[in-house]
Amino acid sequence: MSNNRTDVGFIFQITDKVLWNVFKKNEIGDVLLPFVVIRRLDCILEPVNTKVRDAYNNFKEKVSEDKLDPILRKAAGGLQFYNTSKHTLDSLKENPKTIEIDFNNYLNGFNKEVRDIIENFQFDKVIARLVKNKLLYRMIDAICKVDLHTDKVDNHGMGYIFEELIRISNEQSNETAGEHFTPRDVIELMIKVVFSTEKETLSQAGIIRTIYDPALGTGGMINLAKNYVLDELCQDAEYKPTIKTYGQEINEQSYAIAKSEALITGENADNIRHGNTFTEDRFADKHFHYMFANPPYGVTWSKDAAFIQNESANPAGRFYAGLPGTSDGQLLFLQHMISKMEREGSKIAVVTNGSPLFTGNAGGGESDIRKWIISNDWLDCIVALPKDLFYNTGINTYVWFLDNNKPPHRRGKVQLINANVPEDKANGIEGFCRPEKRSLGNKRNKIEPFHIEKLIEIYQSFEAGTYCKIFDNEDFGYYQITVEQPEYDDNGNIVKDKKGKIKADSKKRDKENIPLSQDIETYFANEVLPHVPDAWIDYDKTRIGYEINFTKYFYEYKGLRPSAEIKAEIEALEFGNENQKGIAQLLKELLG
């Protein structure tokens, strides 16, 4: 992916000269992000301010507010925002004594959509702290020195500035594992896998495609996906598609950041919406062509349980396939995204931890959800990511890729790719990641572009190998049978109930998982009865389960080394004291 290396040195200059010792490191983003947004809007509005204010003064008492808005947008040259106050950021500096009042008047002069963003930034708290520490004037003066006019910084450059501000903020914050920031290398991998087969379709005339993230965060995934399609994948194409981005975010500040970026980079800011995706689907009537998400791990949905359980009882609802435990909502997000798939074809890429792969018993919510996904042939591929890629968590992570319109050669099958292999030059292992030059929290490794290209090649070749396994859909399913054994009395006689039926001993009850591809009776006769001849199957308790056991599929047995080889190594060592020599001699004797 291309990088627009706009200068972001002002971030550190303002931090050092204005904010240091008043705001903590993890609070710098809270100050700079809204000021950067306001400065960008201020620069864009500069040529149209006079027209907007004239239109406002001419019509404010003649038409209602809802009719005034389109008039002012037209005066602003069709922009989605405008400001009706008499101030600009530069003019605020003319009266230092009234700067707090004037700045609030200036902010209130923005249209409703911008005021909503400012409110969600919780900007009033930032302003109050700046005023208390006599820094408001200095902050406004500092941000005015940052030239964010469009002829100096284009929309791509603004996207990069946002990305750097967000990255710096997240590096300094002490977030929980379930609220981590998705690093660019992981997003790049997700995007390139999803679009690796899409160039021909997207390069046709008149193509319109939608990209959506239901756990939007600050909007990085949808923005990078759109930029990749337009600037790289279809860069040289005769026709470029129209890409529309959508997202929903529950966190107020993250929503404000995402909506700000949409606003100042020319996107439709109304497509960025605030709210709880589970209980308040803000795109209830929409379906999307491409979806990307990194939902929170291990975060409870218990406070939304009543709503979700009610919807799960509706066959037309999003969660009818099953409910995971209330301690983790990852599989709820996945079901929500599946409900948003376009019938003619959609692709999904979603980051999870290991829990959605295997937690839950046969017949339980998690297992039923996996069964639903795999049985419908939506699961295309899962990639096990290298460890330590994320800033604030070191747990194992995976990317699920779903497709409801698989090409013929991939139908009925699932591809698993093990990229959790670090580079090991000493042993000739290229791996799929390299150590970062310096650790950034838990992020100690990085997926380089050539690693991504290698993974794309493995994905596209669709051939089993060291790092790739191909399975039939039913390979993930199993019968879970309940094996019973009779209860015996003190004399060794089988206990029967009043009807003469053999009574099962609950203490000896056991469960066996049998692959769907195997016959239950044959398996039972060969694997169970030789060990417990008096056992039987309670068929009423038989359940079908689905799990994806990555560790088992890629496990490589390493046999014990020959004792002669170990003995030779011991003999080659030099021991410095009598104790070490004694231990070595004992080991040699044990090894023969």
Quick tags:
alpha/beta; Rossmann fold; 4 domains; nine-stranded mixed β-sheet; 23 helices; 40% helix
Task: Note down, in words, how this protein is organized.
The chain has 592 residues and is an alpha/beta fold. The protein folds into 4 domains: 9-167, no CATH class; 175-475, Rossmann fold; 476-553, no CATH class; 559-592, no CATH class. Helices cover 40% and strands 14% of the residues. The strands form 3 sheets. It has a 9-stranded mixed β-sheet, with helices on both faces. Strands 12, 13, 14 and 15 form a 4-stranded antiparallel β-sheet that branches. β2, α14 (252-264) and β3 form a beta-alpha-beta unit. The longest helix is centred in the first third of the chain and has 18 residues, at 28-45. Residues 174-180 have low confidence and may be disordered.
